[in-house]
């Protein structure tokens, strides 16, 4: 009786959705810390610590010669950057607001906006962190040279997109079995520490071991990113199309599963 409706054109509705995505993305960026600068420093520190750990480990084990001929630190960072971007996209999307979240009570907010905002906030933080780290490294230790900057950045985006698609699967399954899905998500992100291929060169991996890594889209994106980064490395055991197809398939399944879950989920499922 007292409900007010206002007709909108397609262009006006699109602007409204974009504005909501922008506002919600800013909210996600500031969620980790009230000061966005401190949040960025935390992300940069996490990346630098991981890079330092791997450099120390390679030095102690004496396997630096197994890396690609070129800048050794850039070789380490090319794997770490994509690894963190992928895993943080998984965590951001799987942890976004579901249909039962109080935020969904505020029209025209919906789960599509929440998922998109969570994914974009993760990408924003990671791209900014990578840019600051590479700029600082080039100032302190010499110019960072990429054979194909656009191709390397495209692989970073592909690592993010595949992580967001996998996060969609976890998000859709979480209301049905939150404990089990949380364990599976942790197992996947921990397994990426080894199966992503950031610790070794794919071209030097024996054929009988490739089956342990070739299923992982992150393995392909990291190997292809190193091909775009180093002039003397040509990937033979990875493909660009595999992570693209994998992402599209997971995204399609995730969207269908999220729609199915959204139509059936209830607040009473989480009641104690």
Automatic annotation (TrEMBL):
Classification of source organism: Bacteria, Pseudomonadati, Pseudomonadota, Alphaproteobacteria, Rhodobacterales
Residue intervals passing through the bilayer: 37-60, 72-93, 113-137, 149-172, 240-260
A single cellular component GO annotation: plasma membrane
Location of the protein in the cell: Cell inner membrane
Repeat among keywords: no
Protein name: ABC transporter permease
Naturally occurring in which organism (per UniProt): Celeribacter halophilus
Membrane topology: Multi-pass membrane protein
One annotated GO biological process: lipopolysaccharide transport
Family stated for the protein in its record: Belongs to the ABC-2 integral membrane protein family.
Keywords: Membrane, Transmembrane, Transmembrane helix, Transport
Signal peptide coordinates: none
């Amino acid at each position: 009786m007292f409900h007010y409706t206002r007709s909108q054109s397609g262009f006006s509705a699109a602007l409204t959705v974009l504005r909501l995505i922008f506002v919600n993305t800013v909210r996600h960026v500031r969620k980790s810390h009230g000061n966005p600068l401190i949040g960025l420093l935390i992300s940069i520190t996490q990346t630098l610590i991981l890079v330092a750990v791997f450099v120390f480990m390679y030095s102690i084990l004496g396997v630096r010669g197994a890396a690609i001929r070129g800048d050794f630190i850039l070789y380490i960072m090319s794997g770490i950057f994509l690894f963190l971007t992928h895993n943080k996209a998984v965590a951001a999307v799987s942890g976004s607001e579901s249909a039962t979240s109080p935020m969904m009570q505020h029209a025209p907010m919906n789960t599509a906006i929440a998922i998109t905002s969570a994914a974009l906030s993760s990408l924003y933080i990671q791209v900014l962190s990578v840019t600051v780290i590479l700029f600082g490294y080039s100032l302190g230790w010499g110019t960072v040279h990429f054979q194909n900057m656009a191709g390397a950045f495209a692989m970073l985006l592909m690592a993010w997109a595949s992580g967001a698609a996998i996060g969609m699967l976890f998000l859709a399954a979480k209301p049905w079995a939150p404990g089990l899905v949380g364990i599976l998500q942790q197992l996947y992100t921990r397994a990426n520490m080894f199966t992503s291929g950031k610790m070794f060169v794919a071209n030097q991996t024996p054929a009988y071991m490739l089956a342990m890594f070739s299923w992982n889209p992150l393995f392909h994106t990291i190997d292809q990113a190193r091909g775009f980064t180093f002039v003397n490395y040509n990937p033979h055991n990875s493909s660009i199309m595999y992570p693209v197809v994998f992402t599209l398939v997971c995204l399609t399944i995730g969207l269908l599963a999220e729609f199915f879950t959204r139509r059936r989920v209830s607040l009473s499922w989480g009641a104690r």
